[in-house]
Amino acid sequence: MSLAGRFIRLYSTKPAQAVGPGGQMALGDHLRELRGRVLRAGTFIIIGLAIALYFRYDLYEFVSGPYQQAKDALPAGTTQSTTSGAGGGLMLWLKLCGFTSIVATAPFWLYQIWAFILPGLHPNERKWSRVFAAVAGPLFLVGIVLGYVTLPKGLEVLIGFNPEDLLNLVDFNEYLQFFTRTLLVFGLAFEIPVFVVMLNLAGVVSGKALGAHRPWIIVGIFIFAAVATPSADPFTMTFMAVPMVLLFFISELIARWNDRRRAAAKANAGLSPDELSSI
């Protein structure tokens, strides 16, 4: 039975002490629980937004840091950051602090999602989901850090295409979108090995198949890095691709180990096909 089917079946029946005459849990109970989870998640985000607004100038310096580094590396008068429209400054603070609040409070609102779907999982699935959450979180953060480190070089290359007699105006609201998109791409790129291992555990991909297609996978990783990175320079692309290749090798080793473990656990493991049955 699929996860969705088990989830619906589980929540369609109340515990013994709470079962009504029909033995079914009302849809309103599900909606009230969902509403409570959403309200708690929204409360965390609003509190995070208020805190972020208090530290808005520090956040601005942090986010604009890569652009300032690129600006210092370019000839004087090449680029200038701006805002446009009467409400440009207000939208700048709201976008900046809103994004910060969502990222900073992610453990809280993700837990609300997790607590809502947890009853629909088998004990074994709960164990593996905790393992993946413990691994995926740090990998995502490592990818974001690498994206932040390489972003100044990428901006320097992109702004460097501007003709010398033209001033490059960078709208900060657009820059903020570019900033968040770049960091998310780096963070999600480092989640690929986690999905590879998940597919192996689900029996979709074997370690042997990963090894057979390894050269093409490596080429695909470098193509993905070239497309996903914000600039066309080989430095930024390599900075993303090399860790991804190393993580892929680790995921292949884990997949091969899991295949051997799964094969050894079979009832007929180690038996010759020519050996007579004891029956």
Features:
two-stranded parallel ribbon, flat, 279 residues, mainly alpha, 11 helices
What is the element layout, followed by pairings?
Blueprint: H1 3-11, H2 27-54, H3 56-73, E1 79-82, H4 88-104, H5 106-117, H6 123-160, E2 168-171, H7 172-189, H8 192-201, H9 207-212, H10 214-228, H11 234-264
Parallel strand pairs: 1-2
Description:
This protein is mainly α. The chain is 72% helix and 3% strand. The protein contains eleven helices and two strands; from the N terminus they run αααβαααβααααα. It has a two-stranded parallel ribbon.
TL;DR?
The chain has about 280 residues and is mainly alpha-helical. It is built from eleven helices and two strands; from the N terminus they run αααβαααβααααα.
As a percent range, the share of helical residues equals over 70%
Individual helix count: 11
The low-confidence parts are 11-24
String of helices and strands: HHHEHHHEHHHHH
Inertia-based shape? flat
Q: Based on DSSP secondary structure assignment, what is the total number of beta strands? A: 2
How do the strands of the widest beta sheet line up side by side?
Answer: 1-2
- Summarize the main sheet: 2 strands, parallel
How far apart are the first and last residues' alpha carbons, in Å?
34 Å
Radius of gyration: 25 Å
Q: What structural category do the secondary elements indicate? A: mainly alpha
Mean pLDDT: 79
Beta-strand content bin? under 5%
